[in-house]
Amino acid sequence: MVVLNDQLHKDLMKIVRPYDDQISIAAKGSDGFSFTYQAEVPMLSASLIKLPILLYAFKKSEQNKRLLDQLVRFDDQQIVGGSGVLQVLSSREWKVCDLLALMINVSDNTATNLMIDFLGLSNLQKWVKDQGFLETKIERKLMDEAAQKEGRTNWISARDANKMIQQLFIGSGALPKEAQSWLLKQQFRYKLPGLFDEKDQPVASIIRRARWKQLIMMPVFCL
């Protein structure tokens, strides 16, 4: 494992310490490089909660080969605001695989909520727990103000997000290239894939930072 030299470690700590409990870092490189800071601290997940939904959907598809081709129908009442394109498109019937692609590639909130309904919130919660993602909690759908007022929200840590991205890209359980491309070619380049180059290089690290009550997500190292 590559160990940070003392000066580099000190320099990084100078950067992160002023943020105190507002920052959670888990960085890992294929050469063994590793740097963490409060990596296990749960943070408000924002769109990072879409990662476990994607992983669980593909896990279920291993048991049901037709799952990704199943059609999901919905009406206008199920459309939510925020990011995404379903709110401006006319079709109200999409394949599961297409909804997953929209959920990741354009961070579509409506597609995310449809997938939560399709897969089942309790099933997602159980899978997250069984996978050992200890700081990840999926308690509500996106843009659900009523649930927020009740105190229900979604959480994730940098450590859990790091593990999820590694599952997406590495090992025998890695997702198909098509699914990986949804993230690698994500349209919001200032968020999760903001530092991707134009090659198909997977990210294995995450910074989660809360500042001025907004969440900023950015990769810090690539494999």
TrEMBL record:
<dbReference type="GO" id="GO:0008800">
    <property type="term" value="F:beta-lactamase activity"/>
</dbReference>
<feature type="domain" description="Beta-lactamase class A catalytic">
    <location>
        <begin position="30"/>
        <end position="204"/>
    </location>
</feature>
<dbReference type="InterPro" id="IPR000871">
    <property type="entry name" value="Beta-lactam_class-A"/>
</dbReference>
<dbReference type="Pfam" id="PF13354">
    <property type="entry name" value="Beta-lactamase2"/>
</dbReference>
<dbReference type="InterPro" id="IPR012338">
    <property type="entry name" value="Beta-lactam/transpept-like"/>
</dbReference>
<dbReference type="InterPro" id="IPR045155">
    <property type="entry name" value="Beta-lactam_cat"/>
</dbReference>
<dbReference type="GO" id="GO:0046677">
    <property type="term" value="P:response to antibiotic"/>
</dbReference>
<protein>
    <submittedName>
        <fullName>Beta-lactamase</fullName>
        <ecNumber>3.5.2.6</ecNumber>
    </submittedName>
</protein>
<dbReference type="GO" id="GO:0030655">
    <property type="term" value="P:beta-lactam antibiotic catabolic process"/>
</dbReference>
<keyword id="KW-0378">Hydrolase</keyword>
